[in-house]
Write a structure and sequence with these properties.
8 helices, two-stranded parallel ribbon, alpha/beta, seven-stranded mixed β-sheet, 38% helix
């Protein structure tokens, strides 16, 4: 199968999955029941693009904030499919046709990291989201890395955990695409990258490593440093030389 035929076939399967999941999601919502369909849809999307994830460790449930490294949009399919988590995402994603709407169905919290004056409001909205009955995923690098170096964690949003709500814990997560990393990761624009991944042949086996949850203590920068060390310890991802030390780092 040529790359363009493969792209067309995958797009058709993604559209079919959406057409099945949307009315079922609506029926669950009308009945006042928690809908499993966003999670099932995103898991199915992951399989359509070729992912067959290997899960190591036990994902946390409600009142868990997962802090993970970030390589690709596929990270969201994998983590949502395995955990049912909602995500903290960049505000510009909300304006993307279809993608922003679908992200909203999965309870995505949109934030503008460049809006320094709005950080306090974003932290409060995140604190409110922590009370929902599902885990929250934050990609604290603030951008996609290359899978080899773990970028410094931006601590601003972690102010929602200082102090933490009662019973809340932080779980480090490491995403590893193994030998498929160079095919999955890329620094192109979002659409270009998505189309390239959808054209690639075959399947790949990403690994999701869920570390031991810990209770966050201290300042947001201390929490960022502790989480950074925990994610780096889960695999071969090397910490960046400029990674924040405890009590220091970028805001």
């Amino acid at each position: 199968m040529t790359a363009n035929l493969r792209l067309a076939a995958r797009l058709a399967r993604l559209a079919a999955a959406l057409l099945i999941a949307l009315p079922l999601h609506g029926l669950w919502r009308l009945a006042g029941r928690p809908s499993p369909w966003p999670r099932r849809f995103l898991r199915r999307c992951g399989r359509i693009v070729g992912a067959r994830p290997v899960v190591i460790g036990t994902p946390g449930g409600a009142q868990t904030v997962m802090l993970a490294n970030h390589l690709s949009w596929i990270d969201i399919l994998l983590l949502a499919g395995e955990t049912g988590a909602a995500f903290v995402a960049k505000a510009e994603l909300q304006a993307s046709p279809m993608v922003g709407w679908l992200a909203g169905l999965n309870h995505t919290l949109f934030v503008d990291r460049a809006d320094r004056l709005g950080i306090a409001d974003q932290v409060e909205r995140l604190r409110g989201a922590l009370a929902r009955p599902w885990p929250i995923v934050i990609f604290p690098e603030g951008t996609t890395g290359d899978g080899e170096t773990l970028l410094p964690f931006k601590p601003a949003l972690l102010g929602a955990l200082a102090p933490p709500p009662p019973g809340l814990c932080v779980q480090p997560v490491r995403i590893d695409y193994g030998t498929a990393r160079d095919l999955i990761w890329g620094d192109e624009t979002g659409l270009t990258h998505a189309l390239r991944v959808l054209r690639r042949p075959g399947r790949f086996r990403p690994t999701l490593r869920f570390g031991e949850p810990f209770l966050p203590h201290g300042h947001r920068k201390t929490i960022a440093a502790q989480a950074h060390a925990a994610v780096a310890a889960l695999g071969s991802v090397a910490p960046s030389p400029s990674a924040p030390a405890s009590g220091n780092g970028a805001a």
